[in-house]
Write a structure and sequence with these properties.
single chain; about 240 residues; alpha+beta; Jelly Rolls; Arc Repressor Mutant, subunit A; 2 domains; 6-stranded antiparallel sheet; 3-stranded antiparallel sheet; 8 helices; 9 strands; about 40% helix; about 25% strand; elongated; transcription regulation; WH-like_DNA-bd_sf; DNA binding
Amino acid sequence: MEDVAMNDRREPTIEELRRFPLLSGLDEPGAARALAKARAVSVERGETLFRQGDPARRIWLCRTGQLKLYRLSDAGQEKIIAIINPGRSFAEATLFMPRRVYPVHCAALKPSELVGFDADDLVESLRDDPAACFRLLGTLSMRMHEKIDQIESLALQNAHLRVAHYLLDEYRKQGEPETFRLEASKKHIAGLLAVQPETFSRSLTALQRAGALDVDARVITVTDAHRLERAARGALDS
């Protein structure tokens, strides 16, 4: 699918290449080779970059816009696995698969630009660079722990706790600002948390009534971080 989206937008840069842990340590010839085989890609809102089972010919860096990684159940129900924002790389794990295919679907939530790095070429480079392999494994390990936390949340927490935990996590990841903006629409965040959009909205209202935060569209103002922490632990009195 991604080959259809190839275009002549701004060429990939060395700065973008260095955002990949496995590419950041390449020597000058290796970096030049990776950039020569990289391609700029654009996808419109709602357009598919790749589908589950497609050959994984490239790993990706989101330059602008926003995308979702998702799976579909046999009944066609969508489960969002991750929301990809600018600066985030994805699909690196496919480099280690015996049969290199994408394990999820990827579609644009907003008009997006990406940089795709040639997977076959990177595999050849990794064979000669153990340090790059360890950097990549470190990145994949961190993401695995993120997914374990997500699975634990889905399995052990009710919907309201998931919402509170998600907001607390976003608050901390962004440096605990008084105000921050949700990374995606409420509908797509609800999908990420496996709750209905109506439930997500009710949870926001409950947290607002409890004095933990204020909500203005997608802007969250944390009015009492301690109350938000207690809500994420299920210890906040109603």
